[in-house]
């Protein structure tokens, strides 16, 4: 009898444990306690980088996708960005899970605005709380270099000084090339990029002949084939199909990047070489990417 009683107790315990497991399964995944979790938001793009010069304006769209229901909210940027960005709509009604909202961001940089880079966010607020997560925004207010001969233009970091190079008076002949401008630290400017000390960030803009109107990949194979340590990536720059290349200078262990952009009868070559510690190198290449986004061909 004792054995039978023990067996009955064991079966009862197993039945109780099974009921607990079943109850947990019915409520899984666990539900967040009311008021403790902010409904998440996903942004497209997930980071806005805008580079403008004083006097410029631009409109960009960003889309917020709501993964859970959210209440009515207001939209705005942090105070550092308020003088330069307006957001529309400024308020939205409650949104259901799976819905989305497009926001128009109008950037306006008044004439005379100091050159600077501003980091901030676009955030959605419900009453006094920011709904996660804000959209990161990088606003570069940079000078612009324009070449009178070719008409091309590009924005560049204000801590670099541009030096316009001598331009041949006649159109390029077969196989010819020239440097339009170089950009470097104040102490590193010189008659040519090769004479600059190997420190800091160095950008350059040049032009090479393509009078045979070769396709860009074929032109590169003939005039500037990549080495085994270089990597070429297809890209789009100045509304044209382009190729970007990156590698590391073997002598100075300095990373560099190049961009090849075709135009009628020519190929524009933009490059950056980053000397210094890894943080400075990454900063230089990031600035180069931001500059490339501003490159324009008339």
Question: Strands across the major sheet, in which order?
Answer: 12-13-14-18-17-16-15
If you average the pLDDT, what whole number results?
A: 85
The gyration radius over C-alpha positions equals 28 Å
Distance between the termini: 99 Å
What is the succession of H and E elements?
Answer: HEEEEEEEEEEEEEEHEEEEH
Number of strands: 18
Low-confidence stretches: 1-36, 188-193
Q: Helicity, in percent?
A: 10-25%
The number of distinct structural domains comes to: 2
- For this structure, the quaternary state is single chain
Biggest sheet, open or closed, and with what strands and sense? Answer: 7 strands, antiparallel
Q: Helix- and strand-based class? A: alpha+beta
SSE blueprint and pairings:
Blueprint: H1 2-26, E1 41-44, E2 48-52, E3 57-66, E4 73-77, E5 85-88, E6 91-92, E7 100-108, E8 116-126, E9 129-141, E10 144-146, E11 153-155, E12 161-164, E13 177-184, E14 201-209, H2 216-223, E15 231-237, E16 240-249, E17 254-263, E18 266-274, H3 278-292
Features:
298 residues, alpha+beta, Immunoglobulin-like, Protein Transport Mog1p, Chain A, 2 domains, 7-stranded antiparallel β-sheet, 5-stranded mixed β-sheet, 3 helices, elongated
